[in-house]
Amino acid sequence: MPRQALEIGNAPQQRPGGAARAAQAKAAPSSSAGKPLPKMMSQPLFWVLIVAVFIAMVGGLYMRHKLESMERKLTALEADKTQDCQSKCEFDALQGRWQTRTHGHTCWNEELARETCECTGSPNRPADCMPVLPKTSGGKETESRKLGSSAAAEPTLLSDATLDGASLKADAGDAEHVFGDGEGNGNGNRNGNDDADTDRVHVAGTADRSRTHRKNGQALTLDVSTSHGFTPSDTISQFCDGTGLADMHGKAAPEALAGSDAARDLESKILGDVARELETNNVDKMAREIFTFYVCTRWAPDETFWKLAEQELTAQIISSTVEHEKSPGQAIAELYQMYKFVPMLCSNNFDAFGKKDPSDNLYFSQFKKDVTELASWISDSKDSPVSQRLKEIDDIFCGDKPMNACGDLKIQEMLKKLTQWCPSWLCGSGGSTKEEMWAEMEKFFKSFNKQNRPDSDKWDKDFTNWKARFPYHSFIAKPEGWKGSENNSPRSAERFLICFGKRVASELHRRPSGQHILTDQNNIGCHGFWEPDKARDMLQRLLDLWKPPTCQLAEMTYVMKKEIMAKFQQMNERLFDALPSMINDEMLEAELGEFDFQDHLPKPYKIGSVKVDGQVFIDRMRVRASLPGSGSHKLCVIQKQLKHSVECLLEIDGGDTNPDYGRVHIEDNRLYVVWDKDEQQRRKVPMPMGGVKLKVVPQAWTNKNGFSGHVKNLVAGVGHITDKAKEMFSGMFSSKYQNLAGMMSESVSKWAVCPIQSDANLQELDGHLGVEDAAFQDFQKEAYKKWTGFKNKIPGESCVKSSVLGGEFDRANDCEISELMANHVEEYVIRKGTGVMSSDVKEQFVCPIRPPLPPDEQLQILSEKQGTCYLRMTREQQRQHAWHYQGKFPARRQNERKDNTPLSEYELVKLLKVSAGDADSETSFGRYCSLEELKASPRFCRLAKVHNNWPNLAEFTQELATSLSGSLMIGAAAVTSAVTSFQSELHSNMTKASEKAKKVALAVGEQAWDKLTGAGRLLRSSPQWVHQHLGQELPGDKRVTSELEQRLFGSVDNGELLHMMSYQKSVGKTMLSSNAKERFDRYVVSYPCPDFDPAFAFAARKRWSRVVLQMVQEAIRVHKEALNEPSLRLLLRGEGVRFKNTNEQSKDTFYYKSKAGMQWVDPNGQTGHKGEIPDCKKSYQKSPILGDCEPPDVCESTLFGSCRVKTWWSSEGWWPVANSKLVGAVAPLLTTGKVSTGQFYGLEMNLYCAQKNEFESSGPPVKMPSSLKECLEAGVRSNEMHKAREPWKLYFPEEVVVVATFGGIDDRRCLMSEAGRQDEESKKELCASAVEDSELFKHLSNSDMKDGQATFMGAHTGAGFPKGTLEEVVLQPEDVLEALGLMLPSNHGSWV
Description:
There is one protein chain. Strands 26, 27, 30, 31, 32, 33, 35, 36 and 37 form a nine-stranded antiparallel beta sheet that branches. Strands 38, 39, 44, 45, 46, 47, 48, 49 and 51 form a nine-stranded mixed beta sheet that branches. Strands 9, 10, 11, 12, 13, 14, 15 and 25 form an eight-stranded antiparallel beta sheet that branches. The protein has 38 helices and 51 strands. The protein is an alpha+beta fold. The chain starts with 17 loop residues before the first helix and ends in a 13-residue tail after the last helix. Strand 6 and strand 7 form a beta hairpin. The longest helix is centred in the first third of the chain and has 37 residues, at about 45-80.
């Protein structure tokens, strides 16, 4: 039934009583039964009318009966509604206030310490409604308000202003009616005197807790005996001027309403609204309601703000360049123009957890509807009359430029602009003097209100709509005005400000001599000012960021109350941090149509293969073109037919000088190649074609020019934020936000709550008001404080035996770092498909129950566990098992609802250096090997045994610094760890040494540390130093070093690395509640690795890998047929030639010339392998006149110009080595000073080639190849096939590797000259520990025994391991082939 039928106060017409009806019957003419019926009565239409009248009378009687029944029910409920909450809610619903909220629930408010009544549309008790314990027999009922009247009672809505359990008493007769129940939503009956207009407030002292409020002649007594302190709502109820407040809210003036009762109702309702706003929109209560925001719009300096600005000027809170006492209008206009005083209107708050959507019982669904409706209204408002008028007000000052860009005010120009569009009844004629002009301007500003004129209906309606959307007056006071560039201040259309958090931020207070009650308004988390469409977009982005699957709400819920202010700013920054990625996704959606990032993430590998010409090719293999023959090595593979010719679009080079490289692509069981040089278009060229042969090469091989990056696909657009999106973000948002931050910092933002009653006792009022919140304002200057949210054990500290890997790997442990819950904080529904095919689908996600530690802190905790490695997924493994990291895209689903089980194929890593900072800071780590390989082939994981360890720390650091030169990827943390480990080992081995000896052995000089970690390290890593001191004498040396470095070290962003190390398992439901949700544990897997030292492993493997490759290169230089053997055994010894300098003036001196010799050992005879006698011939290609003997490594010229085999050929296979690096490996290069024969060493090196699974824990493989060369060449291809077939795998048992083992030459030998035999010191030095051998130096020439005037004393050959020799090193087949020149070099161009 319509509400007006129930509003008794509207004085409905009275039905005639019984006597009146009788009089009417007498007066009515009676019809005579004897008269014939009139002619009209015989017409059918007449009887139709009669029937219609009869039906109307019956209907009227029925409606009257229903009205009387409802009136009786209303009266009964009115008389009974104070007895229980249910009756009160039924009364409210019948009056039409809540309509459907007919169910009452009595709740206990812990904060207010009183009962409250909550009306809802459901019989179920709300979740936040605490039941009230039954009252005892001695309980005292709250005294009700009474209002007497001789007239009939008139039910009317009082307000929401009765608060804190207080009751109003209105003593004006014997009748008693209830006005409210203390909850702020009660109704009551009252009878007023329309002629009375006094409005007084009396507040009693402590002894007298009653208040008398005279309103329209009625004495309303407020009993506050049950109140718990004087609340802000009490202040509003007693001291605010209701009429003035109604005017501030843009409501109709009292004289425009039907009567004084309606005016009182309006004022009372607004007072109740304001009181409720203060109670519920308060920072003190934000701990449970933090996820909220409000919107403000820059308003005009209307009459309300005019008064507020005058107060601020009077109190010297803000100042103007104009003397406001003489020209207040000009002063306030200057404040407005320069943004020293910014008037604002603000909306109600929009709470993410405010209420649930009835359709799905979800908070976010309702929140989304409310925000979407607001966003649409803001966007549609840009063409409304009020929006246009607001824009025109700003344009008065400086046209389409920002207001503060035009400097001094020019009143004539301003009024001229004003009169162009302002009606004369509003702006007048403009005035002649400046005073009159400013008066007209003041009149115009103050008249920015409802006009209530016949020709202002459209304006009034729109104005009312704006005030309804933005009912709260506030302002921003900034004494110095807008900071930053004038061009960045808001333009006339940029009016909307979006602010996170509740608005109320302090106690109520007022300015000295102020006539408005104020409170601080939160402006910490604001962003803007936005044009309407931009504001709409920002609201939509907010929804995208806050949807439950992003876990934003779930994480931020766990926040301490004292950090609420920081949370506002954090939410704002999160939104802006997300903007580049959101813009990126929006751009992708615009380009691709409907965009779901999940559809474009890398899919698990689908590896294709095809066999062509007897060779198997697999997706993603690297190949190079080969065109054999003597003709052209170039072929056009893509061409375009022109009118008279053919244009080649893509030509590839198949020669050996600079061949083209590409990547295999298998499609429809056909072989294609995407060539590197065609990177932009990436055309698939079918192969084979035109005689081009494809040769498989390792992934690293490129042509001379290289290529700019890796293969591009759509994933690059989804997995990385594009430069264009970043550019848009910087242009659109960054400077705006920075300048707004400058505006808000140290500013004061206030909400003008209400005007004070004209006759209020201001001294008494101040006794109930607080002060401005200094702590809140100080916070605006402070940075954020970090809070982890964990008070007990730190995540990751406690570990248990691995539930998955514990059986096979009993040393593996699970360390929990977070607990997650499905659909936390609530479910999220998304719509899939379009049109009739669309459906609602619940998105599957989990969110942390408590905020996890920031990635850097969590990684730091894990890194502090000494000798511990952690299981980590590589990016390829993440892709294969769909464990993607979305931390860089906070508006996407962050955590998948799935198990992520740790697998033995993942690798172990050791955390080295964790960089503090956000998730984008990097952590460096050492890479050990996969658990799978550690179990199956530990030989290829662990560093081999070190022979002849360094005797002191100084020598160790010297060797380490030399090996690490040129490797900047190895940080100081890894180097320090290596030094510390060696120092600890050295100390444990010196148990019997004296303290002095220990101190000397363990000391590290300042220069040594500088070479390792300081500026000396940077100097020794420069390209010039490396080239000068280390050289690049080996082909592929740079690649081998780089691959070794990448194999042992890595560096990844903190957030992504933690995700790579994280695993997840479902632990089921707790079953503590009927609607329990599935929970997941997130954990890392630890594994002990105390012996893993990545820095030392790199240094040792780098050094001895080079020795191996140089020895093989030297051997093949002399014996090219050596690779045809199944294995290769080489000896390398240091050789010292001793000389004596005779000095007549002082003691004779001795010194050594260091040399080295090598021997290829016959695998059968265990003696020197002489090899095939070379055929030495004369060649005149390089020397046309004298000619050269070739091959030059083993041939030399005689005195007569003929060629012969070098003399050392017959010396049991030993030959002299000229390579200084090899000489330095077994002999001291600097022989001045004190040098002994103990510094000359002898090495035996064995080289094997086989699959990993054919090697046992030590020694040669169980199955030897037919020849090393065949094994190496086949290994390159087979290894590439394995990696292409399963690119996420790290360990392949069938992978072909090259293993070089080292042993020591046991015996030392010596050779004495005649002069040496006469010198006892030389005899002792050279032969005391060696066997004399007269044939020792047959491989040396006579010139090697001479050195100027010095006397040759003899020679000595070394034995035993050099210092720090590894027992074995492992190489790749391509390492050996490239070093020997049997493969095209990999470093033609830049290394990728």
